[in-house]
Amino acid sequence: xxxxxxxxxxxxxxxxxxxxxxxxxxxxxxxxxxxxxxxxxxxxxxxxxxxxxxxxxxxxxxxxxxxxxxxxxxxxxxxxxxxxxxxxxxxxxxxxxxxxxxxxxxxxxxxxxxxxxxxxxxxxxxxxxxxxxxxxxxxxxxxxxxxxxxxxxxxxxxxxxxxxxxxxxxxxxxxxxxxxxxxxxxxxxxxxxxxxxxxxxxxxxxxxxxxxxxxxxxxxxxxxxxxxxxxxxxxxxxxxxxxxxxxxxxxxxxxxxxxxxxxxxxxxxxxxxxxxxxxxxxxxxxxxxxxxxxxxxxxxxxxxxxxxxxxxxxxxxxxxxxxxxxxxxxxxxxxxxxxxxxxxxxxxxxxxxxxxxxxxxxxxxxxxxxxxxxxxxxxxxxxxxxxxxxxxxxxxxxxxxxxxxxxxxxxxxxxxxxxxxxxxxxxxxxxxxxxxxxxxxxxxxxxxxxxxxxxxxxxxxxxxxxxxxxxxxxxxxxxxxxxxxxxxxxxxxxxxxxx
Length: 499
What we know:
Blueprint: E1 2-3, E2 9-10, H1 14-20, E3 22-25, H2 32-43, E4 48-53, H3 61-65, E5 68-71, H4 76-89, E6 93-96, H5 102-117, E7 127-131, H6 147-163, E8 169-175, H7 183-186, E9 191-194, H8 200-209, E10 227-232, E11 236-244, H9 268-273, H10 277-285, H11 295-304, H12 326-341, H13 351-364, H14 374-386, H15 390-393, H16 396-405, H17 410-425, H18 432-439, H19 444-456, E12 461-464, E13 470-474, E14 479-480, H20 493-498
Parallel strand pairs: 3-8, 3-9, 4-6, 4-7, 5-6, 7-8
Antiparallel strand pairs: 1-2, 1-11, 9-10, 10-11, 12-13, 13-14
Helix pairs in contact: 4-5, 5-6, 11-13, 12-13, 14-17, 16-17, 17-18, 18-19
Domain AAA+ ATPase: 18-207
Protein name: AAA+ ATPase domain-containing protein
Organism: Hoeflea marina
């Protein structure tokens, strides 16, 4: 990587790095990008590399080291396909997000990283995944971007740093400030390279990560550009100052340098105030493209569309589709929903895919009228997954449960309504496996976190009986579940209730 204080070479163990990940921190101008470039150049011949590049600085690696440059201004389907093939064929690449706004950058990076994360097991080759300006993709707090984009990007970064090791993905993230980076992302790194920083809170956190006394934190103010303090199993067992070595390629952008002012021009007013005829064509060419339309809007529009042709290919049997009564239409919609959710794998499909399937099947059943909005579709799916019977669904207590569920996000409503239904009937508390399935995951740990979240919101109270079985009470309903084993199998609910 460079040299130590005494002139000895500063070495970094790539194999150890693949298993332990790396966090680089330093203020703007401290040399983070130079460090990342040095790391990439030195390891290019040994390991596949993928760089998430928000500024387009690393595209110059393609000239000397053959990295494929992937323009981020593509559809999500294209990016997902490219990310999958990148893993399959072991091609080093740079995902250039230059020119996109922050939300588009977050979405593009999330789709690309998730495609690499979801690759087939036979393609889990080791990959060094470098993310520059990581605070953009894993922010500690929400900003001006939509909550959907923030969750999507943060989830991809969490997968990379928390679960990527078993899939061969080794995250190397660089950030200007640790305070701006999500803690669950930063906490997964075991190697650290800390550069120049000036804020007290950042110096204190850097010192804590390196196991240094807080009185020694002042040293981070005095570090020169390109000098870092390293610690970790891939670097050193104790903090060591490292001076990063030279690089073979250069970024397209560079640090600003002083330049002499041009000589005074006599007709400066005409030069500034007279427009150039070519300016208008350049401004037209540089217009930003409109934001992509939501998928749900497109699907709803397609469901209303009718074929257009000058002459019909087949003579229609009747002038129009039969008009359904409200009761008949409702019955057909309910049948379509039940048919979709009867598939055991439907719990693990995204709402967008289920909604698309629903619209297609509704058209096949000749359901007339405007399509069901996405929000109502999600609501109905949550109610059906809760397992509520018609009699309970018509009760005042269930109306209260529906009102309470409106206070949580749409992806959590099905889980809460399932707990409410079990409490109203006095059934055994759902196991972690059943809760995880209702949420669309296989993770029992995530199921327990959901219960903790509901309890923090004041919606439920979780306690245990004398045998240690779990009970969930819902104060607003004045009801609670029967004791149930948290580690019971998914189909053990009826057995527990009988017992």
